[in-house]
Description:
The structure holds two protein chains of two kinds.
Chain A: E1 4-7, E2 10-13, E3 19-25, E4 31-38, E5 42-51, E6 54-57, E7 64-66, E8 76-78, E9 87-94, E10 103-104, E11 108-112
Parallel strand pairs in A: 2-11
Antiparallel strand pairs in A: 1-3, 3-8, 4-5, 4-9, 5-6, 7-8, 9-10, 9-11
Chain B: E1 4-6, E2 10-14, E3 19-21, E4 23-25, E5 32-38, E6 44-50, E7 56-58, E8 64-68, E9 73-78, E10 87-94, E11 103-105, E12 109-114
Parallel strand pairs in B: 2-12
Antiparallel strand pairs in B: 1-4, 3-9, 5-6, 5-10, 7-8, 8-9, 10-11, 10-12
Amino acid sequence: DGGITQSPKYLFRKEGQNVTLSCEQNLNHDAMYWYRQDPGQGLRLIYYSQIVNDFQKGDIAEGYSVSREKKESFPLTVTSAQKNPTAFYLCASSIAQTQETQYFGPGTRLLVL
Amino acid sequence: AQSVSQHNHHVILSEAASLELGCNYSYGGTVNLFWYVQYPGQHLQLLLKYFSGDPLVKGIKGFEAEFIKSKFSFNLRKPSVQWSDTAEYFCAVNGGPSGYSTLTFGKGTMLLVSP
Lengths: 113, 115
């Protein structure tokens, strides 16, 4: 059963904490992406990776970090430097080039306590 | 940079009404165009896409969209909506002055269909 999994579904963060959101895909896709979705704002790109051990900043990378050590995995860390982290985070992947169709995971909702 | 504009933030229709959701983008040239849909509690999923060829593309569940290059538009249509079409719809564009890069999304249109 191929797809993208994200965990956890809900995540609570205390002020000053770093938290890591998981994204795994078994579609054998080379490219992976992280988006942030806020009500009325659409999706905004945080980071993307076109190949293992390489990634680029998106439009709103400040306060976030990523790694891409394995093709299947693209974890996102929300650091304490991100001043407004409460949002819905979506992970996506595509076959290869970034212009191809992207497929999305179920998302993680992050709430700050 | 590329930008995408969706004309309506909220649309309310009765079942069997016709639907048209507007989408315009700012930079022309070679673009790939997408409509995604997010049903309540479900994944964001692809509704339809345009890469090249016939500018009238058909997607799942009876949706279609027309690419009009001269108007920088990619409007989504459905002749008769159903209650199950209640969802948020996102237009997305890849391409712009620097060629292909990453997807730029519109802010979304929430469609509510009353039975």
